[in-house]
Design brief:
Largest sheet: 6 strands, parallel
Number of helices: 16
Keywords: Transferase
InterPro entries: CoA-transferase_III_domain, CoA-Trfase_fam_III, CoA-Trfase_III_dom3_sf, CoA-Trfase_III_dom_1_sf
Protein name: CaiB/BaiF family protein
CATH superfamily of the largest domain: Crotonobetainyl-coa:carnitine coa-transferase, domain 1
Radius of gyration: 25 Å
Distance between the termini: 36 Å
Number of strands: 13
GO molecular function: CoA-transferase activity
Helix content: 25-40%
Shape: elongated
Structural class: alpha/beta
Order of helices and strands: EHEHEHEHHEHEEHEHEEHHHHEHHEEHH
CATH topology of the largest domain: Rossmann fold
Number of domains: 2
Length: 388
């Protein structure tokens, strides 16, 4: 069972979410990831909270399978250690503040290592009036228009997860893989830039096209959908059921086979999706009047049997024990510095390879070994506080 990225070495000066997600994805595929952290506390995400048996919830999510090197990059000796490790690496990833990598002397790595894959991840990209602006996830969501179309008609909202961080992190991982593939074919390295703003604007997709070419601002629809009806949460005797009918055949199946209301199938207000959207309030009211006759579990069974797209509205606690994830054996145990925890396998499943799912490192857990590997006096560096 060969690991897809076996033998690939990644050095990452990273923090928070975006870059750590990218490199964790590479570690899951078998790459060796050396995470460079500050000596005074390490990655900021370590201390966002202590929700996971004393570890930060973000950090354990994003950093399994890595080696932690805590070194002071403000010192020439600390920077030299990183350059020595980069000399043996295939990939260098960084998401420091704009210009920081250059000030530290890591802006010219390919001059000495032309075969290196370098990925620079930033909020707004190089150049332009916003290059130096802070780039937290919520701010990027706002600048990209995502908040404008998320929420209800009464109030906008950011997404419940850091969508801009995740989008740019996944594009970063994709960029690394593309760079490696080209290098293996041609021997040529790459310098790649990933912008959080551009990543999430790309995700705006159809909403952006709607505004650019139809001239209308997409509405905030809550659980509903601007172009499809019925597409919302509908009441049951004891809760709610989400139903999304995307075509006219599905509408007929819903009202005839599930809701026992065949008269609605040929109602001229509802026969096509365009008509249903035009009469959304009446359509939703007609569906709601009938879904409320069943319990959520009864309606769920009827919808599934008829093949109508639907889902129960689950809270996060229910997701943690989701029967589909359990049935597919998607949880694995990994170590942290305080306890063993359950972690979800990544969604990409190879038929002949299981993701590596390594432990989450303590700050500086691998510092001594990495200093020795880089050829410096490890004990001296630790004694002087250059490393931890």
């Amino acid at each position: 069972m060969t690991r897809p990225l076996e033998g690939v070495i990644v050095v990452a000066i990273e923090q928070a979410v975006a870059a750590p997600l990218a490199t964790r994805s590479l570690a899951d595929l078998g790459a060796r990831v050396i995470k460079v952290e500050r000596v005074d506390g390490g990655d900021f995400a370590r201390s966002y909270d202590h929700a996971v048996h004393g570890s930060g919830a973000h950090f354990v999510w994003l950093n399994r399978g890595k080696e932690s090197l805590a070194v002071d990059l403000k010192t020439a000796e600390g920077r030299d250690v990183v350059r020595r490790l980069v000399a043996k690496a295939d990939v260098f990833v960084q998401n420091l503040a704009p210009g920081a990598a250059e000030r530290l002397g890591f802006g010219d790595l390919r001059a000495d290592h032309p075969e290196l894959i370098v990925v620079n991840l930033s909020g707004f990209g190089t150049g332009g009036p916003m290059e130096q602006r802070k780039a937290y996830d919520m701010l990027i969501q706002a600048e990209a228009g995502l908040i404008a179309i998320t929420g209800t008609p009464d109030a906008p909202a950011k997404t419940g997860i850091p969508a801009a961080d995740i989008a740019s992190g996944m594009y970063c991982a994709q960029a690394v893989l593309a760079g490696l593939l080209r290098r293996w074919r041609t021997g040529e390295g790459a310098t790649i830039e990933v912008s959080m703003l551009e990543a999430i604007v790309e995700w705006m997709g159809y909403a952006l096209n709607t505004r650019m070419y139809a001239g209308t601002e997409p509405e905030r629809m809550g659980l509903s959908h601007s172009s499809i009806a019925p597409y919302d949460a509908f009441p049951t005797r004891d809760g709610q059921m989400l139903i999304g009918v995307q075509n006219d055949t599905g509408w007929r199946t819903l009202v005839t086979d599930v809701l026992d209301a065949p008269e609605l199938a040929d109602d001229p207000r509802f026969t096509t999706n365009v008509q249903r959207v035009a009469h959304r309030a009446e359509c939703d009211a007609a569906v709601a009047a009938r879904t409320s006759r069943w319990s959520a579990s009864e309606l769920d069974e009827r919808l599934a049997a008829a093949g109508v797209p639907a889902a129960r509205l689950k809270d996060v606690g229910q997701v943690a024990d989701h029967p589909q994830l359990r049935a597919r054996d998607r949880w694995r145990e990994v170590g942290t510095e305080f306890a063993r925890i359950d972690a979800l396998l990544p969604p990409v499943t190879f038929a002949d390879f299981e993701a590596c799912m390594g432990d989450v490192p303590a700050l500086g857990e691998h510092t001594h070994a990495l200093l020795v590997e880089s050829g410096v006096d490890a004990d001296e560096y630790l004694r002087r506080g250059i490393a931890r």
